[in-house]
Design goal:
Radius of gyration: 19 Å
Largest sheet: 4 strands, mixed
Distance between the termini: 55 Å
Low-confidence stretches: none
Strand content: 5-15%
Mean pLDDT: 89
Number of domains: 1
Number of strands: 4
Length: 181
């Protein structure tokens, strides 16, 4: 059982502990081994992070030490503080998705640093992105809400459309690179 601490002063309508537990329940149990707690704060205040990056940093992974296990720090400020009423509205509406994505990114970092051997430092980012994608798919498979039951038959078509859009984007980027030469 992972301990969830809410040290943030931001008022959210989300049950943060339930969000953390459902996100981790979708992952294999051995991936969460060694993680002791998840802490929600307003801003990251770690002295090891440069001061200019602290305000914008939404997450921080604290690796295992001889004294304590690995733990995650998630800042709600960068995820919710936006300029303009529309951006604040969108940030509030997408907070659950952003927190889930943040938790999966931290878990991917924890997994690849501790349990996935034989990777170079340059290979971590693509591996973590793939871990996040697979984690989101696992969460999607576990979701049995009414909206998800309606969408489930359409998902193969939407996935195919997303792959087609990605292919078109790659072609456009390649054509632009050729014209630039």
């Amino acid at each position: 059982m992972i301990k969830v601490e809410n040290r943030a002063t931001y008022k959210t309508k989300l049950n943060l502990e339930e969000l953390v537990q459902t996100t981790f329940a979708a992952l294999p149990r051995n991936h969460t081994a060694g993680v002791t707690r998840v802490v929600f704060v307003d801003r990251i205040l770690d002295r090891n992070v440069p001061a200019d990056k602290r305000d914008k940093l939404p997450l921080l992974y604290h690796p295992k030490t001889p004294v304590s296990g690995a733990w995650f720090e998630i800042a709600l400020g960068p995820l919710t503080d936006q300029k303009g009423w529309w951006q604040r509205f969108v940030a509030r509406r997408t907070l659950r998705v952003n927190l889930t994505h943040t938790l999966l990114a931290l878990m991917g970092q924890h997994y690849h640093l501790n349990f996935s051997h034989g990777r170079k430092k340059t290979e971590y980012e693509p591996a973590i992105r793939e871990y996040i994608r697979k984690g989101l798919e696992a969460l999607r498979e576990q979701d049995n809400s009414f909206r998800m039951r309606l969408m489930r038959p359409l998902l193969p078509y939407l996935d195919r459309f997303a792959r087609w859009l990605a292919r078109q984007q790659r072609k456009a980027l390649q054509a632009r690179a050729k014209r630039a030469k």
